[in-house]
Structure formats: C-alpha cells, structure tokens
Design goal:
Layout: H1 13-38, H2 44-52, H3 58-85, H4 90-97, H5 101-118, H6 124-133, H7 135-138
Helix pairs in contact: 1-2, 1-3, 3-6, 4-5, 5-6
Amino acid sequence: MRQAPDGADTRGLEELLDVLRVSDQRESYERGIEQEQAAGRPVAVLVNALADLPGVTGLEALRASRRVVELLTAARWHLMRQAREEGSSWSQVGSALGMSKQAAYDFYRRKLDQQDESVTPDSDEVARSRAALDEKSNG
C-alpha cells in the first residue's frame, strides 16, 4: 500500500477498487471450494485460481473500502457545488442523492465547514462553495 508521510493511503480509486474486487474474488473462490468439497467434487481448478490471485486480507479490503468512501464523498461534495452552480435547487440535489433537500444542504454545509479549516478563508474556492449554499440563488 502506498502511503503519504503522515500514513494516509495514497492509492487512486482504480487501485482501491482492484483491492475490493480481488477480495470479493478470493471470497467467492473460498466459498466455492468449501461447497465443492462438501459435495465431494474436485476443487483443484478453484484452488489454483485462488492461488493465482494476489493476497488481500479482510482488513486490507476494509481499509480500501474506507478510502473509496472518502474519495467518493469528496467527489460528491464538489459535484453538489457544480449542480448548484448550474442552477439546480437543493430539492433537486437532494433528490439526485436519494435524500431530502435539508439533508443534502446539511451534508454540503458540513463539508464546507471542513474545507474552511484547511483552505485560506479568502480563496476563490471558499467563495464559490459558499455561493452554492445560497438558497435564494436557486431555491
């Protein structure tokens, strides 16, 4: 696993998804081996296929899953801003996300507050992000 000096996982989305795919494949082969053995059928093909897969532990897959969620959450926040800048209402944004208007607004607000902690307050990014909060601009 690639890590930044602070220990953070620096793998990209595709690499992380590969970890999750391999984990799922390993579990499927392991289940298949158990089922075939229980039925008294040969398992050599499944055992060889399992041996050909990279080793991925459940904990490694869980870490990759957490990082995927972090990356997707970051992308969601920026896409919400984009939708607002394009004229979508908070009701439309919430609907697209399968949540209420208020839940979408609250999620965005929390992410904006987190961004404020890590970005220069007078940056254009902060201004853009704050403008997307304005309920008057597109309801």
